[in-house]
Design goal:
The complex is a heterodimer. In chain A, a hairpin with a 3-residue loop joins strand 5 and strand 6. Chain A is mainly β. Chain A has a 6-stranded mixed sheet, with no helix packed on it. Chain A has a 4-stranded antiparallel sheet with strand order 1-3-8-7, with no helix packed on it. Chain A has no helices and 10 strands. By secondary structure, chain B is an all-beta fold. The relative contact order of chain B is 0.30. Chain B is 0% helix and 56% strand. The chains are: A mainly beta, B mainly beta. Chains A and B meet through loops of A and strand 5, strand 9 and strand 10 of B.
């Protein structure tokens, strides 16, 4: 099983700043099958990034994903008020399709 | 617009079986994989498994001995049963469609709103 570790657990930033979230895998994620989801309170997760760096339909270009192998990053430039949420990474290269524990992005 | 709705008891006693159904509207269940994901209160997401509309399944090994998924194409529904539940199975349970496919692998594009299942006597 691939274990995903997200850091930091909580990130406190102000609107307009840049957020950098990390997702580290216990073994290589082949084909860069790494996705990022955004989840707001009381809502289901929403797909942001797939294939480590491709934005899903309708996702603003301030969201970007990068990385390969075992180290992946989600960056959000120019934080908007609606971006403050919990972010989850998921690998979908092998079963079980594991998630990280999440990073909470909160307003400073 | 595809919509998914989970239904089932919100309270289950320890050692009993949790049963949930996901009803799909606005689209056909045929042609897709469908998944169950849960989230314990205040914690991260936990992948339970998925089922193809033909009935083939893939379960999380940590839950495999207790989980059964099934699909009813005539009702446009798929279901989850989890036996011998404990308090650790208390979570919000989401059903979702694995409809966003790229490079041969699929991700969840449509989700239900989630349903809280509490395991308690």
């Amino acid at each position: 099983e691939i274990v995903l570790t997200q850091s930091p657990g909580t990130l406190s930033l102000s609107p307009g700043e840049r957020a950098t979230l990390s997702c580290r895998a216990s073994q290589s994620v082949s084909s860069n099958y790494l996705a990022w989801y955004q989840q707001k309170p009381g809502q289901a997760p929403r797909l942001l990034i797939y294939g480590a760096s491709s934005r899903a339909t309708g996702i603003p270009d301030r969201f970007s994903g990068s990385g390969s192998g075992t180290d992946f990053t989600l960056s959000i430039s120019g934080l908007e008020p609606e971006d403050f949420a919990v972010y989850h990474c998921q690998q979908y290269t092998t079963s079980p399709r594991t998630f990280g524990q999440g990073t909470k992005l909160e307003i400073k | 617009q595809v919509q998914l709705q989970e239904s089932g008891p919100g309270l289950v006693k320890p050692s009993e079986t949790l049963s949930l159904t996901c009803t799909v509207s606005g689209g056909s269940i045929s042609g897709y994989f469908w998944t169950w994901i849960r989230q314990p209160p205040g914690k991260g997401l936990d992948w339970i498994g998925f089922i193809h509309f033909t009935g083939s399944t893939d379960y999380n090994p940590s839950l495999r001995s207790r989980v059964t998924m099934s699909v009813d194409t005539s009702k446009n529904q798929f279901s989850l049963k989890m036996s011998s539940v404990t308090a650790a199975d208390t979570a919000v349970y989401y059903c979702a469609r694995l409809g966003f496919c790229s490079g041969g692998a699929c991700l969840a594009d449509y989700w239900g709103q989630g349903t809280l299942v509490t395991v308690s006597s």
